[in-house]
Amino acid sequence: MESTLTAQRYYVNGEWKESTTGNVVEIMSPYKEGVVGTVQALSQEEAAAAIQSAKQVQKEWAKVSLQEKADLLYKWADELLAMQDELAQTMMLEVGKSLKDAKSEVQRTYDYIRYTAQEALHTNGESMRGDRFPGGSSSKVGIVDRVPLGVILAISPFNYPVNLSASKLAPALISGNTVIFKPATQGALSGIKMMEAFDRAGFPAGVVNIVTGRGSVIGDFLVEHKDISMVSFTGGTKTGENLAKIAGMKPVVLELGGKDPGIVREDADLDKAVKNIISGAYSYSGQRCTAIKRVLVHDNVANDLVARLQAEVEKLAVGSPEDGNTVVPLIDSKSADGVQALIDDALEKGATLIAGNKREGNLIHPTLLDHVTEDMEVAWVEPFGPVLPVIRVGSDEEAIELANKSEYGLQASIFTRDVDKAFYIANELETGAVQINGRTERGPDHFPFLGVKGSGMGTQGIANSILSMTREKLTVLNLDK
């Protein structure tokens, strides 16, 4: 594949179009100089037309049999897998992900879409008898089913531009909704490639429309539009908070930031802890909401743990994603500036530099900081980059207190040989999920996925995503006695 991608059109009502504005958004590669592609910069009027297209076909799409919807989803999954190499190349150029990781993401997306269809096929409604409640009559029979909400606005992030897009699109479609798909600007080239596969799968026109452009122009407009029935968003906490405010009475599911702690007790298997912390903190340069973003380690084993972490950090492959490196350039210079500022602040306030603190453009070498204290920004701010602060604690209670002080509550890891202590700490943590002796991560994709506090609203995971994009409808049959 060439090092640049051609100008891309947007997809609405089954047609590929160019914006009448004549404007495009240039996509810059995180690791290559220059523009790697352009996407259309839609106007609000064009975005509104996309919404109307989705609204007009939604009721007919809802009437399509579940088996037919599933068959179309299977075809889409097959088309995506068939273009695995092309999609992976696009992701590498656009978001700086290694080919190995990008190909794995496509495979995971294939599996996700197929499982979603199967989950819906194996789900049935329920019936209820009126006489199960005191004073109720056996002549009343309630039939409870789930029906689609309407037009779903799916806003996906840059870091998993294929998988996290499909995790919104597939549940929406199998449930009978239509979709307005707004990918992150840095991620839109991958999103458009997904729509090429979608188009080849043979879905009816208008079922999914992809809109691209500047968030300042169409972002709030899409969320506030009266014909959008529900919003599913993955991205930054500040953007998510604003979205929740302007969405009004629309249901929203928000997957936001995290400051996931790795809690290492003094009885932990340090080899296992180190392996999971390194993978959890530094894979894809830590550009994951579920990355381990701080270590809370007991004083008695802190020196040993830090020495082991240092040895592994110094082994990490660093450089271009084209060479299959683990630590790659961050998505843009603004992100790299933010990470560097956190490192600088910590060192100025007395943190010990164990490894890293070397920068080449957007590439920040994996950085390990010890003796981090609460007055340092890196103790609390989500870095979204390859920097790991180590905070030493004297007890489980101190670790729990520091973990819960965060504005975020996505996940946490606990490393210990004591199962009772593991469950005690897990029960005290204010997070959506806790991993015992494993790294923080999303999935398997049929598990519930959620955050509390600043980490989000609502629950994802295949079955839960379907639930969030449907509502219950009760029909009561009154029988003659």
Written description of the protein model:
The protein has 481 residues and is an alpha/beta fold. It is 39% helix and 23% strand. It is built from 14 helices and 26 strands. It has helices at residues 44-63, 66-82, 84-95, 99-121, 163-174, 188-201, 215-224, 237-246, 270-282, 299-313, 333-348, 396-405, 419-428, 462-468; strands spanning 10-12, 15-17, 24-28, 35-40, 126-129, 140-148, 151-155, 178-182, 208-210, 230-234, 252-255, 260-264, 292-298, 352-355, 359-360, 363-364, 367-370, 387-393, 408-409, 411-415, 433-436, 449-450, 452-453, 456-457, 459-460, 470-478. The strands form 8 sheets. Strands 14-17-18-13-12-20-21 form a 7-stranded mixed β-sheet, with helices on both faces. A 6-stranded mixed β-sheet has the order 9-8-7-10-11-24, sandwiched between helices. α1 (44-63) packs across α7 (215-224), α3 packs antiparallel against α6 (188-201) and α4 runs parallel beside α5. The longest helix has 23 residues, at 99-121. The relative contact order is 0.13. The mean pLDDT is 96.
